[in-house]
Amino acid sequence: MRITKPTAADRVPLDRIDLYDPRVFSNGDPHAIWRTLRHEEPVFWQDLPDGRGFWSVTKYDDVCRVLSDHTVFTSARGGLLTILGTDDPAGGHQMAVSDPPRHTHVRKPLHQMMTPAALKKHIPRIEVGIKRLLAPMTEEPVWDLGAAMTALPMVVSGILMGLPEEDHAQLVRSGMMTIAADDHEFQQGGTPEATLQQAHHDLFAYFARQVRARRTNPGPGLGDSDLIGRLMTMEVDGSRLTNGEIVANCYSVLLGANVNTGHVISSAFLELMDHPGEFERWAGDPQYLRTGIREAMRWSSPVVHFLRYAVQDTEIRGRRIRKGEGVAAWIPSANRDEEVFDDPFRFDIDRRPNREISLGFGPHRCIGGTAAQISLEIALREIFDRVSYLEPVGKPEHLCSNFTAGIKHFPVTVHKR
Asked: CA 249 to CA 233: how far, in whole Å?
């Protein structure tokens, strides 16, 4: 997703707004659209050529309401615009597309493995994995920052899920096929539909094999060693998850992990290339490490939207939303709301307060938030220790997706400390 700094002069006519087209996010100016909507039509209905349509909410408070009030806005029908109007077959069985109380019953046992105390034992392996990923940074004349950061989340999720390292590269690609099926670099079969079908088949088959192998050879500590083991042994409402539910939740956990972390660093560094003094201030003072990460999360907003469906007639800012209609909550827009963030189009590593909601809000806030924080701290310390500044060699290539932001390629020259 391109990140711009629009002003009133960049107003987009309402009849030209299209937040469904993924090319708007890779080649257009979505922030100009969101700024226009926040000021003129914060609850906006868009008709699609095929007869479907959906609401967009762009103000911070409205986004938080839609994401938190599951009694009015359900997740169980699906969470992505790409399947607008079609009920997700995993609804009610997969954590990401379930509402409380079932969502809570699945989430709680997994969350127990994602607390700071539980993650502590994994940190040495995460450090090794991240240092290995970043090793080429100062060894190659041109380093692809975008590709490296795209691979970063898999280092961590692979360890936490207990997945073989030799599988990581293909899992990253299959994940990108799922969340960016319109991006020609990741397409298979020539169409987004064929790409999605192939990605779903590959990922579900992969996790089915993982589950079968673990049932055949359980090994010691099954249920406590990694997230897949916990899914296989935990009970929800007095019953074990079925194999299908285990596989669906493995898929959900993997995608949830892999759309968040990497873009935080690449988008922040892209902005700071125009402000080298700020890069050095962030690198040189430990007190800014965590506030800088929080600001980079706000700035990048890696998850672009979450979709919900109204389960009853309701109103937002006087606009009537009818039962069954889809509502897209736009996270990057909420994170630029002028009523919540002072000077929102300025990257400030010491921004306080910072109420960013990049990992979501309410019951579905990302379960891996602590893991993301840990991996970002490790990666940034490694970069700051070894890099004086980054010099762009070419223009960044943005991911073609209306669901996740991303810089898929960004060649840079790394100047060592």
From this structure: 13
Is residue 257 very low, low, confident or very high in pLDDT (cuts 50, 70, 90)?
confident
DSSP output for 273-302? TT-HHHHHHHHH-GGGHHHHHHHHHHHH-S
Tens of pLDDT along 377-413? Answer: 999 999 999 999 999 998 999 999 999 998 999 999 9
Q: What is the pLDDT of residues 93-129, one digit of tens each?
A: 888 899 999 899 889 999 999 999 999 999 999 999 9
Q: Where are the beta strands (DSSP E) in 48-200?
A: 53-57, 73-74, 143-144
Q: Are 373 and 156 in contact (CB under 8 A)?
A: no
DSSP per-residue letters across 358-403 = TT--GGGS-TTHHHHHHHHHHHHHHHHHHEEEEEESS--EE---SS
Distance of CA 244 to the CA centre of its chain: 24
pTM exceeding the 0.85 threshold for the entire prediction: yes
**Which residues, 6+ apart, have CB-to-CB distance to 389 below 8 Å?**
273, 276, 279, 280, 415
Tell me which residue of 67, 68, 41 sits closest to 56, measured CA to CA.
Answer: 41
Residue 403 · residue 82 · CB < 8 Å: yes
